[in-house]
C-alpha cells in the first residue's frame, strides 16, 4: 500500500495484513505516514536492508510483521529475530521469510529458517525481487515438508479465485488449510503501482471467504 486514502478503503475490507514496501527501487516504495489501521498487521517488506534500518521502520510505523524479500540468510534472520524479540516494541513482531519459487524447489532450503521465521512466504521467482505479477506452479507445494504455516503469493489476481479455492481444498494428506495460512495479493489488484482496486479486492475476498470455511 502506498496511499493513505486507499489504505483506509482497503482496511474496511478487513484484511489480516497490509504490506508496505521499504525498497526504494520499487514503484510501491512507501515514504509517508500510515493512518491508524486497527486489527490489521502492518507489514514492512524489505529487500536486503540492514537490521538497524528495519528496526527503525518497525519503531517508526509500529509494524507488527517484517517480510524479508531479498534472499536474506539464516544468520541474518537469527540476528533480526533476536533484535525484534527485545521488549522495546509495542507488540510481537512476526518474521515472514520469503522464498522464490519456480517449477521446482529444494525444500531443504527451509530448514535453517525453521527456528527463526514465524511464517514462510512463497513468491514467484522473477526479474524483480518481488511484485513480478505472475504465478508459479503451486503443485510444487504438494511436497511441502514443514509444519510452519505459509503465505501463498506471487501474481495472484482476480482470475485466480477458483484456482486458490481449489488449492486450499486440495492440500496434501487432507491436512486442510492448516499450512496455507494466508493468500497474499499485490500487483494484480492495482490500478497503478501501490493503488489497489478495492472493488476487485472485495469481490475476491468474499469469493474466497464464502466458499472456503
Ligand atoms: O511489489 C513490489 O514492488 C515489491 C518489491 C520488492 C519486494 C517485494 C515486492 N512485492 C511483494 O511481492 C509479492 C508478490 O507480488 P505480486 O503479486 O507478484 O505483485 C508480494 O508479497 C508483494 O508484497
TrEMBL record:
Pfam families: PRAI. It catalyses: N-(5-phospho-beta-D-ribosyl)anthranilate = 1-(2-carboxyphenylamino)-1-deoxy-D-ribulose 5-phosphate. Its EC number is 5.3.1.24. Residues 9-204 form the N-(5'phosphoribosyl) anthranilate isomerase (PRAI) domain. One of its GO terms (molecular function) is phosphoribosylanthranilate isomerase activity. Gene3D superfamilies: Aldolase class I (3.20.20.70). CDD domains: PRAI. Pathway: Amino-acid biosynthesis; L-tryptophan biosynthesis; L-tryptophan from chorismate: step 3/5. SUPFAM superfamilies: Ribulose-phoshate binding barrel. Keywords: Amino-acid biosynthesis, Aromatic amino acid biosynthesis, Isomerase, Tryptophan biosynthesis. InterPro entries: Aldolase_TIM, PRAI_dom, RibuloseP-bd_barrel, TrpF_fam. It comes from the Bacteria. One of its GO terms (biological process) is L-tryptophan biosynthetic process. It is an enzyme of class 5 (isomerase). Belongs to the TrpF family. PANTHER family: N-(5'-PHOSPHORIBOSYL)ANTHRANILATE ISOMERASE (PTHR42894). This is N-(5'-phosphoribosyl)anthranilate isomerase.
